Amino acid sequence: MRVLERLVLAAEKPLKEAIWDCRMCGQCILHSTGLSCPMRCPKNLRNGPCGGVRADGNCEVYADKRCVWVEAWEGSRRLPIFKDHILHLQKPVDWQLQGTSSWINLVSGRDQVAPRGWEANAER
Amino acid sequence: MPSVSRLAGLLQAGRFVVTAELSSSNSADPEATWRRAEVLRGSVDAINCTDNTGAHVHMASLAAAHLLVEKGLEPVMQLTVRDRNRLALQADLLGAAALGIRNLVLMSGDDVTAGDHPDARRIYDIDSLQLVEVAATMRDRGTYLSGRTLEQAPSFFIGAVENPFAPPLEFRPLRLQKKVRAGADFIQTQLVFDVPLFARFMTMVMDLGLTEKVFIIPSIGIPRSARGAHFMREKVPGLHVPDELVARLEKTPPARQAEEGIKIAVELVQAVREIPGVAGVHLIGIKWEEGVVQVADAAGLLPRPTLSPLATVGGSR
């Protein structure tokens, strides 16, 4: 691994893990999810909550935890900007980026690379 | 223009449709599937084949749906992203098309911890909305998600699901809108027991103009006993069963609870039918196809309209 990437990771990983319980997917969409990391969802849902959310707003799988997407929706309402980004259609996760620096991938544009069949429908 | 399926044709013609869920099979004998499905013949417009429902293993929905096609019954193939990655999902979608399956319902699926293999690895490579987009890409662009071209694009009538009763309630109609943008043609909802809450959801859906673009089909459960209703309330993820309903069944003598369950379901069908934007009902009688037929009959939904075979394309091989 290149030195620069190691240095960035050394800063990014502990910071984002501490603040957002980040799972290092390497393609961060926190600003589209009200600063609630969607990779904490047991189903890794990137586009909204599943139908199993409990009446009290807790997770289907972990009854004692708030649903990541309930937090995402509430968080998105509080954001001064990016409020409507929760309505964006999020492309499938690129699992090759797991564990890499989303900051580097953001600057390089690597995190914007979608499967070709997905891009064809991007205007929708 | 001919419709892709009987279900699509009826909805596009503005008919109030009736679909039902087929009990999933644990038998290697196709007769077990056919026997349950035959009960529904003539009483519903299409039959849902579930995909490891409740995260319990059963016969593959692809196989069950194909068994229905063989008998001239119209299936709706459910497919979850819980058990398959994007390669397996696309392979099954293409295979389904080749086997004459046209109607799809694509969903996340109950978590493995709700089922009989809680120790299983969950997949969730892509999410349910992304699967809707993948199916639409195969149909409309004639390519896989990778962009690689299909020799022949499949014809699909693409369904998705929504739970109007699970938090965050204000986001639910917007999530439905996202699924419509991804390519959903129709929506089957979670079981409706709370009619006023469902009506509120439909108002929000109408305000977004979504009923112009997608057919909304609420699910109606047919409780067979107070114990069954109790189980649904306690054990089934995402279900919101009101206390009054359980109490009403508990007050009924056990021998008459099934009858009371039919009555409850008929009342629910009649109530949702009055709500603007509702395009049909999806009847779910757990291991109780006879209950579905009784509800369809008592709710005045029979006989089902016929659709000329010429009006659909590729409904069978």
Which characteristics define this entry?
heterodimer; A: mainly alpha; globular; B: 317 residues; alpha/beta; TIM Barrel; 8 strands; 14% strand
Described by strand count, sense and barrel closure, the largest sheet of chain A is: none
Structural class designation of chain B = alpha/beta
How are helices and strands ordered from N to C of chain B?
Answer: HEHEHEHEHEHEHEHHHEH
| N-end to C-end Cα span of chain B | 20 Å
**Largest interface in this structure:** A-B, 39 and 49 residues
Structural class, from secondary structure content of chain A?
Answer: mainly alpha
Number of helices of chain B: 11
CATH architecture of chain B: Alpha-Beta Barrel
Task: Please tell me about this protein's structure.
The complex is a heterodimer of chains A (124) and B (317). By secondary structure, chain A is mainly alpha-helical. Helices cover 32% and strands 0% of the residues of chain A. Chain A folds into 2 domains: 1-29 and 91-124, no CATH class; 31-89, no CATH class. Chain A has 4 helices and no strands. The termini of chain A are far apart. The relative contact order of chain A is 0.18. Chain B has an 8-stranded parallel barrel with strand order 1-2-3-4-5-6-7-8, surrounded by 6 helices. In chain B, helix 4 packs across helix 5 (128-140), helix 6 packs across helix 7 (195-207) and helix 8 runs antiparallel to helix 9 (243-251). Chains A and B meet through helix 2 and helix 4 of A and helix 5 and helix 6 of B.
Secondary structure layout plus pairing:
The complex is a heterodimer of chains A (124) and B (317).
Chain A lengths: L2 H18 L47 H11 L23 H7 L7 H4 L5
Chain B lengths: L5 H7 L4 E5 L8 H11 L5 E4 L11 H10 L4 E6 L5 H13 L4 E5 L20 H13 L16 E6 L9 H11 L3 E6 L3 H13 L7 E7 L4 H10 L7 H9 L5 H17 L6 E5 L4 H10 L19
Parallel strand pairs in B: 1-2, 1-8, 2-3, 3-4, 4-5, 5-6, 6-7, 7-8
Helix pairs in contact in B: 2-11, 4-5, 6-7, 8-9, 10-11
